Amino acid sequence: MMDFLQYDFARQAMLAGVLVSIACGVVGTYVVVKRIVFISGSMAHIAYGGIGLGYFLGINPIWGAFAFTALSAWGIGFINYRAGQKEDTIIGIMWAASMALGIILIQMSAGYTADLMSYLFGNILTVPREDLIFTGVLDIIILLVVYCFFEEFRAVAFDEEFARTVGVNTEKIYLLLLFLIAMTVVVMIRAVGVILVIALLTIPPTIAAQYTSSISRMMLISVLLGSIFTVGGLWLSFYLDLASGATMVLLAVAGFFISLALRGIKNRRLMVVEERNNFYENG
Amino acid sequence: MMDFLQYDFARQAMLAGVLVSIACGVVGTYVVVKRIVFISGSMAHIAYGGIGLGYFLGINPIWGAFAFTALSAWGIGFINYRAGQKEDTIIGIMWAASMALGIILIQMSAGYTADLMSYLFGNILTVPREDLIFTGVLDIIILLVVYCFFEEFRAVAFDEEFARTVGVNTEKIYLLLLFLIAMTVVVMIRAVGVILVIALLTIPPTIAAQYTSSISRMMLISVLLGSIFTVGGLWLSFYLDLASGATMVLLAVAGFFISLALRGIKNRRLMVVEERNNFYENG
Amino acid sequence: FKKEESKVREEGVLKVWVTVLPQADLVRKIGGELVEVNVLVPKGASPEDYEIPPGRLKELSQADVYFVVGHLPLERVWIERIKGINKDLLVVDTSQGIEIIDDNPHIWLSPRLVAIQSRHIYEALSSIDDENKGYYEENYAALQDELEKMDEDIAELFTGIKTRMFLTYHPAWTYLARDYGLTELAIEEHGKEPGPKHVAHIIDVAKKNGIKIVFASPQHSIKSAQVIAKELGGEVKIIDPLPEDYRELYETVSLIADAMRRAEKNK
Amino acid sequence: MEKETTAVEIKNLWVKINGRSILEDVNLKIKEKDFLGIIGPNGGGKTTLLKVIAGLIKPYRGEIRVMGEDRIRPGYIGYVPQYAYFDYEFPITVEEVVLSGRLKHKKGRRFSAADYRIAHDKLKQVEMYSFRKRQIGELSGGERQRVLVARALAVEPKILLLDEPTASADKGFVADFYELLCELNREMTIILVSHDITAVSRYVKTLACMNRTLYYNEDKILTYELMEKVYPCPVDLIAHGIPHRVLMPHEGVVGER
Amino acid sequence: MEKETTAVEIKNLWVKINGRSILEDVNLKIKEKDFLGIIGPNGGGKTTLLKVIAGLIKPYRGEIRVMGEDRIRPGYIGYVPQYAYFDYEFPITVEEVVLSGRLKHKKGRRFSAADYRIAHDKLKQVEMYSFRKRQIGELSGGERQRVLVARALAVEPKILLLDEPTASADKGFVADFYELLCELNREMTIILVSHDITAVSRYVKTLACMNRTLYYNEDKILTYELMEKVYPCPVDLIAHGIPHRVLMPHEGVVGER
Ligand SMILES: Nc1ncnc2c1ncn2[C@@H]1O[C@H](COP(=O)(O)OP(=O)(O)OP(=O)(O)O)[C@@H](O)[C@H]1O
Ligand SMILES: Nc1ncnc2c1ncn2[C@@H]1O[C@H](COP(=O)(O)OP(=O)(O)OP(=O)(O)O)[C@@H](O)[C@H]1O
Ligand SMILES: [Mg+2]
Ligand SMILES: [Mg+2]
Ligand SMILES: [Zn+2]
Predict the structure, then answer these.
(1) pTM for the full model?
(2) Residue A155 at interface with chain D, using a CB cutoff of 8 Å
(3) Number of domains into which chain B is organized
(4) Which ipTM score applies to this complex?
(5) What share of chain A has pLDDT > 90, as a percent?
(6) Structural domain of residue B226, as residue ranges?
(7) Which of B67, C57, C152, E111 keeps 20 to 30 A from C81, CA to CA?
(8) CATH assignment at residue A101
(9) Which tens digits make up the pLDDT trace of D34-57?
């Protein structure tokens, strides 16, 4: 480990991993319990439209991405609340529309455009300092918002109808959540790329959910697991000489299966058919 | 139109558009009613792992993609039925894992970078004849399977528990559906790229669902709409000289919003809050 | 080649297509007024994620010759498809006879390999358009002189430099390095995302040799290059691996040579 | 004066869903501390009416005033839905579900000890206190319904809306539950939808019948003619066990205890 | 001989969920054409037992035989769940939902005219025929429950499992429904879970109480002691309206009509 830590970039990558894990662990918990994993994946793609817009207008693409995902968050919330459409379909449509727009805008913009791959994949080894700061600020915002609206988030995520009868402005709370997801995705895309974001948003909270039925504990466990996966993955990739983002993801996936197996051994003789039904119970 | 149709490649692209619309309209209807849009998006990314494997083993990447998505369909079904995990999370995990694996495999395989983007984007203008044949065969398979198991698919998608008590092998039926989606995604990736697949899988059935509550009619309308969007988009992209895949997607998105607006005008004074609740009822 | 001949007579010019900008320059120099050159990947676009719009395909369906670089992934995907659209298209692989390293496509960045490429271009043009063979030959000879001159100039740039090592993010200069006895340190391994060990290794080597300049290309994100430069206490310099005018190559290489001199001083 | 004592006032309310008219010209005026029972056939629109009062469905036409105001204040409504649609795998305990009834009462970000005390009290009232650490999905149908009742009670609302709260509850609980409602009724207005006419007629102060529109008399009289309008086969009904005292052809207070 | 007439036979059945034991040592033997009513407190395990019989939950230990076989044949079971969890926006009509009960009867890929006739008959029996073209989400709670009953009937099963089928049904329907069950009982075995002890005791042939384990007498006698075991407060219960003839301290057939 030591010889690895002597490099600036390595220390910075570890810091990035931990900072990313905080945001992803907290936001990812909501993503997983509210079953909106799809949203995180789509927002990442929606961001591409913004990147295209950024190039087209000659502004920093990251602001385009911000504007686009924020707008899409608002759009998802709005259409969802006002137009009575299925959320997942709307998101699928926005996904496709944004990507298409991104392609056309990039095609139409003059001058050099950056490669799509770096947006999709990112590279945690070479996260610039400013992105670290971005991520840190995002962590603080997320923690603050969640700290302030913890109960409201939970109530709205669990039973939105009842929350409304109690007087919670459920639209606002849900939009706030969507905005948090949007911001996380954009900042993370810049720092670590799309796949790592999706992996860190979903895998640690899913593992955590197997061991607790408390949202706050899920968040804590997720942040810890995320940090283990990123730092461990980094270290592993160093010794195996593999791409670090991918190694982190594979480590997390391994973690998921190990945890599944452990739980499986514990409950081996328990019935499971019933539990599986829960999928259908939800649609 | 005529001067466009004089080109072989244009006629071929139109044929491709219609063939793709058939598969997407039929499979997409299930994807939309069963709310598994996410699966189609993920399978496209999961295919990337297979592409990496193809490069690594030095075989045609499309076979790797086939193997991978088929396996993942089976995996999604299996974990879902046996391990009591949330389907959307599993899919998110597979998505990330496959992408990561793809990256590592490509990194480890000999030679210079693989061409990922052509798999993500495809190009309907230059679909090789063999892909047309592939797509045509897929259309026939899909139509046959759906023709044979129409009632079973509907019953399982609607209320899997009851279907089970009646004696339907729900696992088998669900797996069959996942395989159809997997095959569609892989064939379509090759023919038209990921974004167009997602757009064609989701947008036409979503529009159709606004006008009918019959699955078979949804399929029919979806196929028609899909054909209109692809052929119309092709024609439009030719005259505006834009990327054709992206133009088709944007045309479809425009179609969705027009239909939404039309419905909105019709129902303007109707209450909509209630309908929106349905999301929470399923979430 | 009867058919093509008649085409030339009818329309006056040969419709020639190439994939990247530097190739276009070569074809123009050899074909002069007798050719109309089109580039598949326009300026600024990255050959990795270029989607061909229908208008281009329409033009491609009327093309006469396509000169491929030979090892660009983009070409691997599209050439077969383009051939499907235009069955009369003559596709010439300009990398024939060039020893390829690791499937690296950037053969247009060494004057010596460019000489081979331009011979392929010349031969193809004159076999299609036999009538104007003399014209092509004349142009070709002039280009060869120019390239020889550039070859000598470039070789001269490095005289007196002992550690001929430079650091680049994207491994575009591999052939240049081979032909002039340079060592290219590339952060991307074979054009793929690097692992941390590789990055650490590059940093070690760069530090040992006093290298402080990281070369990046405008088509790729320079963000990552900046982080490496920071670790080395140096800076990022942008050099274009897809120059529009072939003569720019000399300027670019002189930047590389300058960087080497500075590194020697740092050592 | 009058305004002060009217809990819910509905004037010429129409509700349409998907172009189909569900409620037609509903008029209703409930005094504070009233206990209104609503009966009616399946599909009569009872659930829809409660949702309109709870602010979950916007009317097509007409006016609703809750506690004299045309908007619903936080904490005024406690609602027990007929069916609760939520994710049974959601990581939330029974206690946390009930606490969510205190959302608009809590000062600051967290629930206070007082909130917890109230939540626990309500759980005890529905005999679910020992289940408080269970995940919500790990309950039987009737247990879940009790928790939802506790959640609505935890709001300590001005108006309690109950949509068949005892549909899945066992008989032991039902009797206790109605006693509890009578007690709560001293402090709040209650609107109860139920098919259990026997029980309803015994505990409520006012009775209304719902079938597209609301048949309701401020005089608290439910006539035989009214029942005939509402139910498709009132004769059958009587034969099958509706206590005759519910039906008073000319006068008499229904549900008087 | 004996095997031929046993509809459901359960021996030493244990069910655990998430490590918690839900059913303990349940034993049950139901003759063909029997009509078993199961009562019991909330959380007693009634729903779990029905799901085990329907093949939806695998037992932790023990043995179940349905119609003499250890696997369930298609078309043997008709199941009306306590709560149906499905997507209310699903594009399916009431008629199509009921037809899905015919899935394993249909020859070929499509439903025959006979299947349609049966589905329509069942819809008429639950008074929902006129709703047959409605999308399933556009129904009220009670209407939906009737459709689910029709769906189970459309199976024309050997064994009909009903989990509180009348919880949201109006009284008019309930009476008719029990008459219908008695009629159906001539051709099939029925197991009915309900909290409506009055109704149950009137129509069923055999009565059982469920609280973790099944208290059940093949002699069809429900003793006072039994009730005391099952319900936390049997005295209360009686006070609150359980007809006394259900409780027979020493002997007598319960539910005799
Ligand atoms: N998924 C689960 N995890 C843990 N415990 C569960 C789960 N599902 C049900 N239980 C418990 O199992 C017991 C029996 O549940 P069941 O649904 O069978 O009861 P029931 O007799 O049908 O009750 P009700 O009359 O309320 O419907 C209850 O105590 C319940 O809390
Ligand atoms: N989304 C919808 N679209 C169309 N019609 C609907 C919708 N929801 C309910 N309805 C109809 O509205 C009417 C009233 O429904 P509501 O749920 O209010 O009845 P209810 O009195 O509560 O009945 P129950 O006793 O069965 O619960 C019913 O006829 C029902 O079919
Ligand atoms: Mg209702
Ligand atoms: Mg139950
Ligand atoms: Zn390059």
Answers:
(1) 0.81
(2) yes
(3) 1
(4) 0.78
(5) 26
(6) 2-282
(7) B67
(8) 1.10.3470.10
(9) 898 888 888 889 999 999 999 888
